[in-house]
Amino acid sequence: MAKTGWVKADRVMRWLHLYTGLFLVPWMLIYGTSAFCLNHNEWVRETFGIEPPTWKVVRKVDSVPNDRFSGETADQALAILQWLDLDGAHGAHERPKVNQLVIVRRCGSRDYRITWHRSRSEIVVETQESHSAYRLLHYLHFRGGYRQAYFPLIAWAVIVDAVGISMWIWVLSGVYLWARKPSKRRLGGVCLSAGIVLFIVLTVLLCR
User: Fold this and answer.
1) Distance of CA 50 to CAs 42, 138, 140, 168, Å?
2) Minimal CA–CA distance to 78: which of 60, 70, 87?
3) 1: exposed, middle or buried (C-beta count within 10 Å: 0-12, 13-18, 19+)?
4) 42-51 pLDDT, tens per residue?
5) How confident is the model at residue 7 (pLDDT cuts 50, 70, 90)?
6) How do the domains of the chain map onto residue ranges?
7) Of 43, 116, 121, 129, which one has the greatest count of Cβ atoms within 10 A?
8) What is the pLDDT of residue 205?
């Protein structure tokens, strides 16, 4: 009975290790590639000729949707975005000294900066140039959170949680499968110990 239990546990661990990894292949490739690019940011930009992004005015509107406004900044930002047909993930902040509301609309292909100049009742829409796969990698790498209830954002946040949980599963199942193979215990133990010691040493050095 004990042997049968171990066999079932082995199957479960292998199943989890295999199929969670296969399902998350696109996300792991994205995070692996973007992490490499972030670690070698200057080299990537120079090699592929990626220019720093700039803002370009694409639209000006000489009115605001006053009928849908409230006194709250968040509500005003949402009303402006919906009125401009740019509803989506965004952040907003006030510039009280110049009486402006600035909204940054996040998007995988580009960002929009919408500035409401209250003193002259004008909305200026700018878009960030230039577009590139490199920018998309950055966007996907840092995309996450449940603060705004847009389906793609919530779905992506759920997948990010799945990636985090799966990493724990891969580590635990990997240690389990190693421990179940007596012929691999010595070499595996050396690798495990070396990794733990190096992690501790580098963490201590980075905290000094």
Assistant:
1) 10, 13, 18, 36
2) 87
3) exposed
4) 999 899 888 8
5) confident
6) 2-48+149-206, 54-131
7) 116
8) 95
